[in-house]
Amino acid sequence: MTATVGTVVTLTVLCIVFAVLFRVIFMLALNIDCREQNFKSTTLFTVLAFFFPIITGAIYAALRKKEKLAKKSVTLFIISAVIFALCICTGICRTVAANKITTDISDNYTDEEIDKSVDKILEEYSKKQSETTAGDSSGKEQPTVKPDESKAVTADVTGNLTYNLTYYDRDGKAYKSPIDVPFYDKDGNRYFCKQNNNLQTWYVKEGDSKKLESLKCFIDKDGYFFYDEKGELTLSADKLTAKDKSGNAYSPAALVLWTKDGTMISSIN
């Protein structure tokens, strides 16, 4: 993705600055010429020139009598025209950059895929919450989850589902940020999810800078991280699960989360 969110924000700010600057200079240019023309409505035209510069300029041009503009006005009108052109160009670049970001996101994650992933995980999460608050087989009521421990599940534009405020790993350890939550493989190695300003995600092994493609990162039924570097897994049609040649199921790492007690919530459980 060549365009970034920061680029769009910068272009938006520049467009606003150019727009305001154009109005101010245009207003000054018209005010100077109004006074040169001895217009009785100089104040009115000056105010209108700031809020409606193009329309006011056209009306003023039709009403003024002298053919030549005041010298200072000519200079200011030229400067305002240049700034107006810059404002238009900046606005076009901002629109193109924003559309580029939207297109890149759409190419990697369709709305249908994200909606299915969200619905599936929310359904599983609701079931787990119901089991937590319901009584056990002996009839003894289980303790309910405290308000500050019950966090809503959300999804970002990449489809990653997380808790608000509190995040847990497979051991039930709490974290304040999702990027701090580790994934563990069977050898005890830790992996972390990373995301840049372009909304691109990948995973890295602790102590190793190599980027692991997010679409090849999975969690097995026991909650262990697996990187499908050799393409050994086959994704299901809905892309919510994958299986190896032995029929073992895996869930995309981006769709996995854990509750406080270490229970894995994913599309395979």
Structure explained in plain terms:
The chain has 269 residues and is α+β, with helices and mostly antiparallel strands. It has five helices and 15 strands. The model is unreliable at 142-164 (pLDDT under 50).
The sequence of SSEs as H and E is HHHHHEEEEEEEEEEEEEEE
Helix content: 40-55%
Report the major sheet.
5 strands, antiparallel
Total count of strands: 15
Record the strand order, biggest sheet: 10-9-13-12-11
First and last CA, distance: 34 Å
Oligomer: single chain
Average pLDDT, all residues? 81
β-strand amount: 15-25%
* Count of runs of 4 or more consecutive helical residues: 5
- Runs in which pLDDT lies below 50 for 5 or more consecutive residues are 142-164
The computed structural class is alpha+beta
What is the rounded Rg? 30 Å
Tell me the overall shape. Answer: rod-shaped
Briefly say what this structure is:
The chain has 269 residues and is α+β, with helices and mostly antiparallel strands. The chain has helices spanning 5-37, 42-51, 53-63, 71-108, 111-133, and strands spanning 153-155, 161-163, 167-168, 174-175, 183-184, 190-195, 201-205, 212-213, 217-220, 225-227, 234-235, 242-243, 249-252, 257-258, 264-265.
